[in-house]
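Predict the assembly for these two chains.
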Amino acid sequence: AQSVTQLGSHVSVSEGALVLLRCNYSSSVPPYLFWYVQYPNQGLQLLLKYTTGATLVKGINGFEAEFKKSETSFHLTKPSAHMSDAAEYFCAVISSGGYNKLIFGAGTRLAVHP
Amino acid sequence: GAVVSQHPSRVICKSGTSVKIECRSLDFQATTMFWYRQFPKKSLMLMATSNEGSKATYEQGVEKDKFLINHASLTLSTLTVTSAHPEDSSFYICSAKGDRAGQPQHFGDGTRLSIL
């Protein structure tokens, strides 16, 4: 069965600092991995995804993530945080069961300070 | 592309009322739609999965007679919360995806349901 662990429910960075949000997964099959962002009272917006191919995936808003099979990780990074990046971030893996259900991590709330 | 519209964005109603929430894929055919419930400061909890023209598949612990799901076309799914009570108050989010493996789910903006 698949599972996702996001280390750190809250991360706080200064504006302009590096953003690193950690995600580790467990999967018995080659995983499809996703990062989503959620702003208050809104749905989720896809930041980036990894299916196959290049392990460094670039997404929207300057975010990128690297799939590391040996470490079963898919950490999200951004070189320089903006105030507008403050939000909840969810890592997810597709279930190997039917319908391509998503298995979500618990989420990481990113705070950005001036 | 890949826009999902969810309506209404907010509903406030009396206990005992039934409430319908619509989820539409505006620019793609959604073979599968998902309905989630999100509690404050929590992750999303999958309630059910629906495929066009088929009965929804509900997750364990979700009452199918309480949360009626219809997926009548490739662009529309509805969730009806029947005889809603205050404990049904929550943030409900739908998502939709096409039929290719590995495609991401695209999410609506959610519906804040408040039962008085």
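The interface with chain A takes residues 4, 6, 32, 34, 42-44, 46, 49, 51, 57, 91, 93, 95, 97, 101-110, 112 of chain B (CB under 8 Å). Chain B has a mean pLDDT of 92.
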